[in-house]
Amino acid sequence: MTTIAPYGSWKSPLSAADASAASTRFDGARFVGDEIWWGESVAAEGGRSSVRRRTGAGDIEDLLPSPWSARSRVHEYGGGSWTATDDGLLVFVEKTDQRVWSVRPGEDPIPLTAEEPAARHGGLRWQHGTLLAVREVHGDEAVPRRSIIAIPLDGSGRVGELVAGSDFVAQPSLSPDGSALAWVAWDHPDMPWDGTQLRVGPLVAGRVETWTSVSSGATAALQPEWTADGALLFVDDPTGRWNLWRADASGGEPRPIAPADADTGGGLWVLGVRWFAPLEDGDVIAVRTHGSDTLVRLSPDGAVVDVDVPIRARAAIEDAAGSRVLVSGVAPGVTGVWLVEQDGSSSLVRGSSSDLASEWTPDVRALTVAGAHGDVHAFDHPPTNPGFVAPEGELPPYVVLVHGGPTSHVGGVADSKIVYFTSRGIGVLEVNYGGSTGYGRAYRDRLRGQWGIVDVDDVAAAAAGLAAEGRADAARLAIEGGSAGGWTVLAALVGTDVFGAGISRYGVGDARTLATDTHDFEARYLDGLIGPLPEAEHLYLERSPLSRTDRFRVPVLLLQGDEDEVVPPSQAEAIRTALLEHGVPHAHVLYEGEGHGFRRPETIVHSLESELAFLGQVFGFPTPGVPPIELD
Questions:
Q1: pLDDT value at position 423?
Q2: Is the separation of the CB atoms in 218 and 206 below 8 Å?
């Protein structure tokens, strides 16, 4: 029987605890013998990052027991926190000391790097009998020293530095005969999606002393991978799209492989991410992104075959063995790791889902609206509940979700958080504003020098466009985002009259403070997004929400971790003070022990329930089973 009830008040079987449990993070996957290993966060243990395996018999076992946690802090965002040798030795970066350790199943871990509080490790890779890593050492210099190292497995702690010579290094790849190293390098003020160099150099006595650049330096070349015949594959975007390129061992200019109007590549926020892998038969499996993700198999002759995997967002190629591939990502209703067989069939190795039937998942609709700076891309997730409908003539409230980065994107898949809202009668609009990845270089560069303008105009245009179609209540549009998305939330609240409420998760309120207080990886990010300091200081002042606090008019919910080193808690506190001074209804929640991005299940539960309670209070609908939130 269908119940008629106002949007927002629909009863849902998906609790905040269910949504949290379905929000497992997966970090890497590897073939080890006849087993599959993968990294997985353990919600019941405070979000600890474990490594688990599926044995040949199909059983699931923990390889990294509590309290060990595999998590890197290189560039703060980490990545590549574990790998495994061919004979089943697990190698990982321990979260608490950032040393590299090794362990065999059932034994105690032993350290492979020396105890050095200033050093961090990440981007671990086992290749041709060598353990490679990115090493970051913090000292008195403004920029930490970063290098690519080789780590012996004997526990001596005597690591060998292979190469340094730039502010940042990433994605090392050892040639099949071990004679050469390829890697990605870049320097401040560039970010790795702006300009990098793909370098190749001979290894002489365990070091690279000279190198050549395969790419121009004016493009964002990423992920070098050697083929069995000594050619180098990589992704690059000289044509405006990240496509696959091949540099033959015999020399000559690199040539594209099956170029497409889609991206094989993305923002290099974490060290372990990969978008393609060469296969034993000479083919390549690759991610292609145009808004949403797909997987394709590319032949040397340029033939392209679609791979039947349900992943549509955050797709990454984790490992390849022969012609079998492990892929991670998000599919409708599930986040996890899939095994792709040689014949193209796929199966879920390990997944995290809410166990709701497919009828609870909204039918996503790709939406493109005209904006002041060009077309704006978004995904519409309408209210969906098989047991409820709204009264005739009522339009639904919507939450406009703004992704972080800002050099990132969403793929239009309803995850557990989206379903938490849509199943209660609250629509969700995800916006890939100008500056997002996944639509080519020109779309990505639309935000250069325009952060706080293009992103704000685009999210407002997308929200207004949805309302103009008669799909959303224009009087009940909320905007929500985290980190850089939180900046856009706050800037939209002071710069437009489109939204009736805002939710900022660890959002940026003062761009000048962010530029001076943030970590080194993003220390010059704002040079490209706004302009270099001190020359562009007036732009920082003009665009920062904290410079325009008298324009806050609608209720705001601020959610913040007290250990956030990317966007310090002082930013949220300053916004809170301004809201108090101007008499704007608001709530400020500070979560103890949380950093940049909430990991603890109790935090995720409380923040979700707080968001729902906030929306109900502001937009005037009851929220069954969720306690009210007090606004100051």
A1: 96
A2: no
CA 147 to chain centre: 24
Residues in the chain: 632
Find tokens 């095994």 and name the residue. Answer: 339
Segment holding 443, helix H or strand E? helix 441-445
Cα-based angle 268, 157, 75 (whole degrees, multiple of 5): 20
- This prediction has a pTM of 0.94
Instruction: Work out the angle at residue 270's Cα, subtended by the Cα atoms of residues 44 and 288, and round it to the nearest 5 degrees.
Output: 105
What strands, in cross-sheet order, belong to the sheet with 556-561? 365-371, 374-381, 427-432, 398-402, 477-482, 501-505, 556-561, 586-591
Collapsed DSSP state (helix, strand, coil) of residue 361: coil
Burial of residue 253 (number of CB atoms within 10 Å: 0-12, 13-18, 19+): exposed
What is the spatial distance between Cα 7 and Cα 391, in angstroms, rounded to a whole number?
8
Phi first, then psi, for residue 90 (nearest 5°) are: -85, 130
Residue pointed to by tokens 């906030």? 614
Give the helix/strand (H/E) hosting 491: helix 484-495
Helix (H) or strand (E) holding 540: helix 537-543
Side-chain-side CA neighbours of 465 within 13 Å: the count stands at 23
Report the C-alpha gap between 554 and 582 in whole angstroms: 11
- Pairing relationship of beta strands 255-257 and 276-278 according to DSSP bridges: unpaired
For residues 83 and 124, is the Cβ–Cβ distance under 8 A? yes
Provide the 8-state DSSP code for 489.
Answer: H
Q: What residues in the chain have per-residue pLDDT under 50?
A: none
- Retrieve residue 559's tokens: 């959610």
Q: Is 480 helix (H, G, I), strand (E, B) or coil?
A: strand
Q: What is the pLDDT of residue 54?
A: 76
CB-based contact 242:236 (threshold 8 Å) = yes
Residue 423 is classified by DSSP as T
d(CA 90, CA 63): 8
Q: How far apart are the first and last CA of the chain?
A: 40
User: In this predicted structure, what is the pLDDT of residue 136?
Assistant: 98
d(CA 606, CA 603): 5
Q: Is the peptide bond before 406 cis (omega within 30 degrees of 0)?
A: yes
257-285 exposure pattern, b = at least 16 Cβ within 10 A, e = fewer: bbebebbbbbbbbbbbbbbbbbbeeebbb
- What pLDDT digit, counting tens, does each position of 355-410 carry? 788 899 999 999 999 999 999 999 999 999 999 999 999 999 999 999 999 999 99
Residue type, 187: D
Tokens (6 digits) for 438: 């996944």
Could you tell me where the beta strands, DSSP code E, fall in 74-129?
82-84, 90-93, 100-103, 110-111, 119-127
Distance CA 63, CA 317 (A): 22
Ordered DSSP codes for 208-234: ----EESS-SSS--EEEEE-TTS-EEE
d(CA 323, CA 344): 9
φ/ψ (deg, to 5) at 359: -65, -15
The 8-class DSSP code of residue 262 comes to S
pLDDT at 249: 83
Strands of 248-364 (E only): list them.
255-257, 276-278, 284-290, 292-298, 304-307, 313-321, 324-331, 334-340, 346-353
Phi-psi domain of 592 (left: phi exceeds 0; alpha: psi -120 through 50; beta: other):
beta
pLDDT of residue 405: 93
